Fold this protein.
Amino acid sequence: MDTYMTVTAYGENADKAAEQAENRIHELDAELSTGIEDSLIAVLNKKGSAELTKDAAYLMKCSLELWKKTDGAFNPAIYPVMEEWGFTTKEYKIPDNDILRQKVQLSDASKIKFDENSGRTEFEIDGMKVDFGGIAKGYTSSEIMHIFEENGITSGIVSLGGNVQVLGSKTDGSPWRVAIQNPNDDDSYIGILEIKDKAVITSGSYERYFIEDGKTYHHIINPDTGYPAESGLKSVTIVSDDGTLADGLSTSLFVMGFDKAKLFWSDNSDKFDAILLTDEEKLYVTEGITDSFDSDMDMTIIEKED
Ligand code: AMP
Ligand code: MG
């Protein structure tokens, strides 16, 4: 996954659980990573069709559901656009306008033919490609929670590049404390969240970007334009029981921007909470986590609308 990860488990089978977790991370990476040449997803992208494994089929299903629910803000077919910007090779460049427009047309998730039962997947347009980069970390961490449970672990935590999911509480019964990174400074944080049995996943423009002619171009794309989303948000953190959903939504709400994100939360407040930091450094927290989030910054509470 091109990032650092740590797995911590407490209990009799902790070593075994941690080892299984590590193997599972590598297994999922080998299946899902677009950057590994013979991964299932790389083969799907090359051939335009494939039989998906259970893991890949689950992510396809969730991605397409999110694509619908978020009005296309989350788009698993965005990969041709990612390639054009060089985010897939780290050979960054600003794309030619006409070519980018073609790539945006190619990123049409309605043209993914997917049979949920068999996993059979086919692209209806030549050259289409999918990318689970916006959702796979969260699925991976939630799979590790299952491995923990199967091994009788009652207290554990995994961090995949700063995206965290926890099982239970700390061994002394107190909640896990997760720091939310300050986008402007690697060494400080915007606040601390206390959680049990939750995933905490952040998307930010600061995570991957390049600068050309003084302008910054980051890796979260507005699927309508093909350009990095300039939605007024600097980072979005999602807190949810469901790691896969948390990851998909962190990317989605970042693309939506504050007003749409707020409405989306209001309609789905039973499924997640969010911490939003705007480009102007204003901090917003949804009402479900106001008691568990502590920050030195001024924060505004987002309440549910009727
Ligand atoms: P995250 O860090 O979870 O926000 O994921 C960012 C990654 O998701 C990018 O590096 C791309 O691989 C992919 N991505 C970028 N834009 C989108 C989008 N609008 N919908 C879905 N995935 C995206
Ligand atoms: Mg995400």
